[in-house]
Amino acid sequence: MAKKIELDQDKLRKLQELKQAGIDPYPYNYAVTHHAREIHEKYGSLASAEHTKDNVSVAGRIMLRRVMGKASFFHIQDQSGRVQIYLQEDKLGKEIYDLLSKKTDTGDILGVQGTIFKTKMGEVTIEVIAAQLLCKSLLTMPEKFHGLKDEELRYRQRWMDFFMNPETKDVFVKRAKIYQAIREFLDCRGFLEVRTPILQTQYGGANARPFLTKINAWDMKMYLRIAYELDLKRLIVGGFEKVYDLSSCFRNEDADRTHNPEFAMMEIQWAYADYYDAMKLTEELWEYVAKKVLGTTALKYGETKIELKAPWKRLTMQQALQELAKIPVDKLTDEDLLELIHKHHIDYHGHNRGEMIVQLFEQLCEAKLIQPTHIIDHPQESCPLAKPHRLHPELIERIEPFINGWEVGNCYSELTDPILQRKLLEEQAMKGRGGDEEAHPMDEDYLNALEMGLPPNCGIGIGVDRMVMLLTGQHSIRDVILFPTMKPLEEKK
């Protein structure tokens, strides 16, 4: 529950005075003809003190007020930016001017009509000939020079963050363009966008802890989806060949700089393709989106320069351990690997060779993968849904692409052998019964579909939030999610 914010008593008093004067402080509509940005673009070349007869109608929030007797300058802000307005008593009449200069405050929303001119100081301005109060704000605005800087408060009060820090809004404009570019790329290649169920009787498609909910009408527990994979593969069984879902998944896990319990993901299932095709398409997708949104494949993230242009570097997991951590996995025994686990203080208590290799890679190599790199050929224990490697049966044909030290996706040649799949899921179910909350559960309905026959295919998953972080230069996933998951503030007693 959000904490109640105290209303501004002075604004409340003005609200009552407006109502007593017969003015509706919350009207139904207002005709807008122009926005701030287009006014600046169109009239920026005016000479100082030059006036036009061009009439515009704009609306926005009052961000700055300078009242100087019988004349005032306000700055109002709309979706596109700010524009200055000039109000005069002799143009508007004393009654209207007094209302605007004495009964409005920063935070109020105002609609104005007027003509364009440029002040002697060189600022494009609207000379107001008519105005209407569109909304009386009842909360105190943050102090104008410092704005809304507290990060926790910014995430909790996004509505204030957007008008106090317009650059925040620009991130989400760019995010929308990223979504559009992803869809353009896939649609042009014959992929069909679909919507898989959010509420599921059986979760699956990843090793993750789910959110549990309930359908009261049926007195039945349900899960929020953790991935799209199994439903998309059911569609491939049914005869679709190229499908994708671009929406949200939910995992009941800790939140940090690159994780949020609700997150955006794009996943493809592609019939008759394998993980080599997946690598190529992943590279092409990133390259296309970067060019479409940024105009270049070269981006700067903080002080790091990253080149997204294909082809990307490819390393097997064993090669990465050799190259980045000087660990020759193929020459080490299980006991040697366990000793390295303990030496590097890695929290792992099993003795599974494949899992130890993955743990060593995650702890010692991931952060060093700055330029786009595909890590391929993972131990078979790392995923029960991927196809065995065609040359090395102890491995699977799995890829994790990395950029800036982050895993930004997950791809593999999908396992299509129903007998082997049942065996692997039964092993996972035993882990779950043993207390592993991230073990993949048994899903009989999916196995039934697989037993009907799944053609060769590959799956590609992309973490969209991390893509947005990289392409917008943001350093926390909360900065690219409109309303990130937040722990409620405790009320003071």
Write a concise keyword list for the protein shown above:
2 domains, BirA Bifunctional Protein, domain 2, alpha+beta, 15 helices, 26% strand, OB fold (Dihydrolipoamide Acetyltransferase, E2P), 493 residues
Q: What name goes with the CATH superfamily of the largest domain?
A: Bira Bifunctional Protein, Domain 2
Secondary structure tally: strands: 19
Residue-averaged pLDDT: 93
Give the strand content.
25-35%
- The appropriate CATH architecture of the largest domain is 2-Layer Sandwich
Number of helices: 15
pLDDT < 50 runs, ≥5 residues: none
CATH hierarchy, class of the largest domain: Alpha Beta
How would you classify the quaternary structure? single chain
Shape: elongated
Distance from first to last alpha carbon: 15 Å
Q: How much is the radius of gyration in Å? A: 29 Å
Q: Report the structural category.
A: alpha+beta
- Give the total of domains: 2
Instruction: Kindly state the percentage of residues in helix.
Output: 25-40%
Briefly say what this structure is.
With 493 residues, this protein is α+β, with helices and mostly antiparallel strands. It contains 15 helices and 19 strands.
Overall description:
This protein is of the alpha+beta class. It has 2 domains: 9-141, Beta Barrel (OB fold (Dihydrolipoamide Acetyltransferase, E2P)), CATH 2.40.50.140; 166-312 and 371-480, BirA Bifunctional Protein, domain 2. It has 15 helices and 19 strands. The chain has helices spanning 9-20, 36-43, 89-92, 94-102, 151-156, 158-164, 166-188, 229-237, 275-294, 317-325, 334-343, 353-364, 418-433, 444-452, 464-472; strands spanning 51-68, 71-78, 81-88, 109-118, 124-135, 192-193, 199-200, 212-215, 220-224, 242-250, 262-271, 298-301, 304-307, 313-316, 373-379, 395-403, 406-407, 409-413, 457-463. Strands 6, 10, 11, 14, 15, 16, 17, 18 and 19 form a 9-stranded mixed beta sheet that branches. Strands 1-2-3-5-4 form a 5-stranded mixed barrel. The longest helix is centred in the middle third of the chain and has 23 residues, at 166-188. The mean pLDDT is 93.
